[in-house]
Amino acid sequence: MKAAKFDYERPADLDGALRLLGGGGDVYAKVLAGGQSLGPMLNLRLAQPGLLVDVTRIPELTRVEDDGEALVLGACVTHAMIEDGKVPDVTGGALPSVAGAIAYRGVRNRGTIGGSVAHADPAADWPTALSALGAEAVVRGPSGSRTVPVSEFIVGVFETVMGEDEILEAIRIPKLSADARWGYYKVCRKPGEFADAIGAVLVDAEHSVHRLVIGATNAAPVTIADAAEVLGGNGVPGASFDLDAARRLVDGADTNLDDMERHIHAVALKRAVEQVAK
Amino acid sequence: MSTKGIGARLTRKEDGRYMRGRGNFVGDMAMSGLKEVAFLRSPVAHAKIEGIEIPDAIRARVFHNADMKGVRPMRPAASLPGFKQSDFPALAADKVRYVGEMIAACVADTRAEAEDLVEQIIVDFDELPVLANIVDAQKPGATLIHEEWGDNVFVVTSRDDDIDAVAKTAPVKVTRTYDMARQTMNPMEGAGCLAYWDERMGQLVLYSSTQAPHLIRTGLAEHLELEQRQVRVIAPDVGGGFGYKCIMQPEELAVAWLAIKLGHPVRWVQDRREHLVACANSRQHHYQVTAYADEKGRILATDVEVTVDVGAYSVWPFTAVLEASMAGGNLAGPYGLEVCRYKTFSVATNKPPFIPYRGVARAGVCFATELTVDAIAREIGREPHEVRFENLVTPDMMPYTNILNKHLDSGDYPECLRRAVDGIGLEAVRERQAKGEEDGRMVGVGIGMFTEQTAHGTSVFSGFGIPLIPGFEQAKCRVTPDGGLEIYIGVHSHGQGMETTMAQVANEILGIDPDLITVVHGDTGSSPYSTGSYASRAAVMAGGAISRTCKVLAERLGIIGAHLLQCGHHEVEVRDGKVVGPRGEVSIADVAKIWYLNPDQLPDDADPGGLEATGGYKPKVDTGSFTYSAHAAVVAVDVEIGAVELLDYVVVEDCGTMINPLVVEGQTFGGTAQGIGTGLYEESPYDDNGQPLASTFMDYIMPGATEVPDIRMVHMETPSPYTDHGIKGAGETAAIAPAAAIANAVNDALRGLGAEINETPMSPRRVLAALAGARKAAE
Amino acid sequence: MKKTVNLTINGRSVTAEVEPRTHLADFLRDDQRLTGTHLGCEHGVCGACTVIMDGEPVRSCINFAVACDGTDVRTIEDFDDDELMAHLRQAFTEEHGLQCGYCTPGMLIMARDIIARLPDADESRIRLELSGNLCRCTGYVGIVRAIRRVLAERKEVASV
User: Fold this and answer.
1) B193-207 mean pLDDT
2) B160-170: average pLDDT
3) How far is the first Cα of chain C from the last one, in angstroms, to the nearest whole number?
4) Which of A200, B243, B650, C7 has the most crowded Cβ, counting Cβ within 10 A?
5) What is the pLDDT of residues A82-138, one digit of tens each?
6) Packing angle between helix B538-565 and helix B498-510, nearest 10 degrees?
7) Domain A181-277 maps to which CATH number in 3.40.50.1010, 1.20.1560.10, 3.30.390.50, 3.30.360.10?
8) Which of B625, B650, B630, B632 is nearest to B718 (CA)?
9) In terms of residue numbers, what domain contains C91?
10) Class of domain B281-458+621-778
11) Which residue among C30, C75, C139 places its CB closest to the CB of B672?
């Protein structure tokens, strides 16, 4: 189980990386941003790029900044750095708890937040969690930067809005108010496995945020941006958000899940909301 | 009395090298001129091969069936009436019969380059209808996997007791269908082998990750048409076997042939995808059971049909008959069943061939019978363990030959059950259930019992009439000139700790410290013949052989020692590493020094055989010593998402005299974990096209540290009356019962909801489906 | 096609030409002859190939050697004289935390990381942290007991 041949470059800066991605002619180039998902696909020969562009050492991609309203994490910040609190937490514990439940420690030490988002596996944690947190993806291309909400960044299984000549530069995570509440429930066969269902909820009344996300749906996460009403009148989740209410949301979402899968997603969503209600 | 002999809780001699990363596995070896092999494997489940297109530039490094002239396909016989043989060539000839079947071997400097070659080969397939399950394979007019057979059934076995009388009058009747999923063995090291031709010895040398080097030697010689003396097989460190490595792999045959053909060393190291999709299938049993019982739950008769989806070919030498026929023969389990009618079918499908897996057949049988016992208990409203007490064979019946001709040698089965019931705290669980759980989960408790026929020998295997039947076991023991001991055995240790336990047996006889004993195993060039480590036979058989041989050495040491001590040799005894006489003692080291280096001081009656002997052993009754066990599990079922968590797990087991309780516990914990995998997680599903759906550990879920609880073990120790030292086997046992115990616990938990689950693995989907079915039935 | 890498392996500076597709485990095993690092799945699930890179456990089968340029890698062979690893080895053998020995190097490296990083870990945390290392022989019973034992014994020493 050995990878097919590929070439490898490790550009010193973002411009160099963009040049390699854009200028290859008929060489299929792929960004290596930790490689914890790409590595297995290469070994299994499911992916056979001609060139790997290793961006993990590019300083712009490992930066950690506070821009006042949000925390900006370079795409190549690792899960373990977030888990261990080596980057500031502006989410009242949401970020480190999500990071700490991704795969296994050995993977978290090398895997990166940007790599995970750009890989766009619906069963991964970050696409759902960051959608719920209202995070944005900062995308750099030959013609400059653009910002896309993570909830719109992923459009399908392994599919994003990025062009082949673009790189995910950073994730911008808005600061939550002190009394914001976070709920996150992942259903998987065992720890470290990819999720069968994820429910995520953020209630940040001060910022008028009442957001639900149905994740791991075999497609892009489904974000319900204005969930104040379904969560119960004034937006404070209570007993009214039961399994039936969750199920109605799942049924109303555009997914191709079967009946049992929709049930499990509804349970995940309900349990996430229960965490917030507590 | 020695403190390091039989019964001592000795830490293992082999641990050091593994913990420092100094083990030596097949993949670790370096050799001048070594090339690596990758196989082109069929991407389709059933097709004629119309042509193989190999680019000229790589033709010299690619080999297929037509190149392998003179190599025989594996065609193991079995003497069961009606058994149909299959031709299983190392590389497919005109037809492929499962996804993953090997078509071509590619040789290159590195494995990566060999895989590059694989990608350049184009095979022209004429696809045939695929038989992906036992139902399709048994339909009239189904495509034939082996055209000459006329149908797709390897063999049918049956027993035809008259049950009509019982059926008419029995007050209780339960009928169930059970399914155990197909799964793979997954030792952490897959298979692998390295071969070269040794010009000096005129020998093919094959290093292989195998449980049975002598068996492989015999198999290679026969299939390559070599003389047996021209083949040497060495099993170095082997990273687990669990039955998968007790047969001759087609890859071993191909690599051996390549080495001879090419004149340089070649190696193949199996990767996990190959293991999961192409190589290591087992366990897919389907049962239809009807049991008749009286009001107390005493089983009056069972009527069972077993169908096993054994895949496309018979493996050499154990064939495709083992699973189903052993399933039939083990239907009585630990119970005193009086009437049993059964029929078993070994059905060929377009899937990889079945290979024996730890607890061969019995994991399925135990699942079917133990769930049936609980179904009877529910039917009559008794505690399942009470129903078991009604049926268990009792100590006063021992030895007991049951209706299926299993000769149960010894033990106290009811006491085993009592300890399991106490150990799991049944009453406390019942109280907990009455209170309910804060988190809404449903708690249940379940038991699974079984007997395992261990070290069954000639009289049993000859009944199958397979190519290779185990018989006597030998050991060669040599006292070294400085008083150490070398033990050469033909079985192989790959996790079982035999480098320690076999030294303990020798210590029991000679008193030589295990630290001064080397156990040499796994090399046909140095050890006596053995059919290998399988069927929980190694500790019984090799242990007995070592014991007998060491007694021979003790006698010879005594004669020399007595001479040195100037007393009669009947006056001395050998113990604690010394020859002890009435007026003094002399160390074995001193005796050995004189034998080897100062023969001038030897007595006239010294045995010229010296301090090296080969002795043999076979238990006085070779139908097997029966280890028995009760497993008890407590589960919590999350009925919203179908998740099952194991809260507690107790194993009570009696494997006769324990050579080393630490090692017995290790075997038990590991076997239980595999059984937990069978029960809750592991599954190799196939789609209708015969495509495997679990090809990586991302799809095939192995139990990890979070899925296996801190298992508690309770020992019982009833020596076997038939084996030296009373040893029974313990290797396979614990994998048998977990699926049954857990299923009974899950069904106990779901009883109030009217749901019942009768298949493995009990995945969330299956649990939810059972709950949905119950809801529907209630409506 | 080959690329030059410079890295430190078990305290030695190593410069080598590697094919980009060669993963770190193959580089360690085949080029450096450090065969204590084992391959169990080659897709990042089983943990047998776990090594220490810049102080952290990583999976050497899904990291390519070429991308490890400049790092400091330690394999199981480098821990012969490591005090904590010696303690773990003692506990592993006494609790029967290994059988066939194939997962053991990765398991020990992960265990050592758990003890160093999480001195207060309880049994369930240990199990969670170990969930990325598969063992087919032991049922994890001896492994978990060994780690618990080392944690307890070190705590005892620390409190004296």
Assistant:
1) 98
2) 96
3) 58
4) A200
5) 999 999 999 999 999 999 999 999 999 999 999 999 999 999 999 999 999 999 999
6) 30
7) 3.30.390.50
8) B625
9) 80-159
10) alpha beta
11) C139
Query: What CATH number should be reported for the domain whose range is A59-174?
Result: 3.30.465.10
What does DSSP say about strands B231-234 and B203-208: parallel, antiparallel, or unpaired?
parallel
- Return d(Cα B581, Cα A65) in angstroms, integer: 85
Nearest residue of A to residue C60 by CA position? A106
pLDDT at A229 (0 to 100): 87
Q: Where are the domains of chain B?
A: 31-128+187-279, 281-458+621-778, 472-617
Decide if C64 and A35 are in contact by the 8 Å CB cutoff. Answer: yes
Contact criterion met (CB below 8 Å) for B288 and B302: no
Q: Return left, alpha or beta for B754; rule: phi > 0 is left, psi -120 to 50 is alpha, else beta.
A: left
CATH classification number, B472-617, choose in 3.65.10.20, 3.40.50.10210, 3.30.365.10, 1.10.540.10: 3.30.365.10
Q: Please report residues of A whose CB lies closer than 8 A to that of B698.
A: 40, 193-194
3-state secondary structure B296-324: CCCEEEEEEEEEEECCCCCCECCCCCHHH
**Is residue A224 within 8 Å of B729, Cβ to Cβ?**
no
Q: Which residue's entry shows tokens 């999709």?
A: B277
What's the DSSP call for residue B247? S
As a residue count, chain A comes to: 278
CATH label of the domain that carries residue C107: 1.10.150.120
Nearest to C22 by CA among B227, B109, B304: B109
CB-CB neighbours of B400 under 10 Å: 18
Residues C39 and C69 in one domain: yes
8 Å CB contact between B653 and B716:
yes
- Give CA separation, A231 vs A184, A186, A226, A236, B723, in Å: 15, 19, 10, 6, 70
d(CA B78, CA B82): 9
Query: For C40, which of B272, B663, B704 is closest by C-beta distance?
Result: B272
Domain ranges of chain A: 7-54, 59-174, 181-277
**3-state secondary structure (DSSP) of residue B344:** strand
Tokens 């009760």 belong to: B630
Q: What are phi and psi of A152, to 5 degrees?
A: -110, -10
**In this predicted structure, what is the pLDDT of residue A259?**
96
Task: Tell me which chains share at least 3 CB pairs under 8 Å with chain B.
Answer: A, C
Residue range C101-116, pLDDT digits in tens: 999 999 999 999 999 9
Q: Does C59 have pLDDT greater than 60?
A: yes
**What are the chain B neighbours of A190 within 8 Å (beta carbons)?**
681, 701, 703-704, 706-707
Whether the Cβ atoms of residue C110 and residue C122 lie closer than 8 Å to each other: no
Comparing CB atoms, the residue among B112, B640, B698 nearest residue A194 is B698
Q: How far is CA A12 from CA A102, A145, A193, B110, B483, in A?
A: 29, 19, 34, 32, 66
Contacts of B226 (CB under 8 A, 6+ apart): B204, B220
pLDDT of residue B303: 98
Claim to verify: residue C69 and residue C91 sit in the same structural domain: no
CATH number at A7-54? 3.30.43.10
